[in-house]
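Revision sheet: structure tokens.
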Amino acid sequence: MVRRAGGGGGAGGVGVKAARRPEVRLPALESYDGFGLEPDGDYDGLEFREVDFVGQDGGGARFMDCALTGCALDETRLHHARVLDSVLTGIRGVGTDLAESTLRDVELVDARLGGVQLHGSVLERVLVRGGKIDYLNLRKARLKDVVFEGCVLVEPDFGGARLERVEFVDCVLKGADFTSATLTDVDLRGAAELDIARGVDRLAGAVISAGQLLDLAPVLAAVMGIRVEGGGGEG
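Predicted:
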């Protein structure tokens, strides 16, 4: 069942295991001076600053020890990409395709993304801090040791995903979908706003605060078929 905690956010307490945050230490980087992404490209120890990757195909590419800052990723194809030990800051884009990709030891800071496709992907030791992501598709993805901090997620789709040691800290979730998701040690107490549109019945394995339980009560009642009416007894 959903665990309820009376305290504030942050992992620890009531048996929930804390997420392991990435510890990215980038080496001295070389400036990227290429002409665009290549399918199955290998990018190691590079700094991409204000690079326009709009509409390009980098499917299967590997980014290792890289920094991407202010890059445009509208309709960029990065299907099956691997992003490892890297920091992505201020990236922006609509329709970025990262489906079935791997993100490991990654910091995503102040991103502005819409309709980004991460379905079937694997995220491990990932920090998403600040920024806003609309219509994030994480269907059937695997998230382990992932922290969403100070960001806004509008209608994120976790349908069928597996979440283990995932924390939501000072972030806003609007219209979240947890249909058929599996949650283990998921800490929702620190969410500044928690709005679950679908899949509230899949919150077993999550911990929420007493206040959040009250906010979710109408949705929980509807799922359980409980009719809530005002007023006292007859008389």
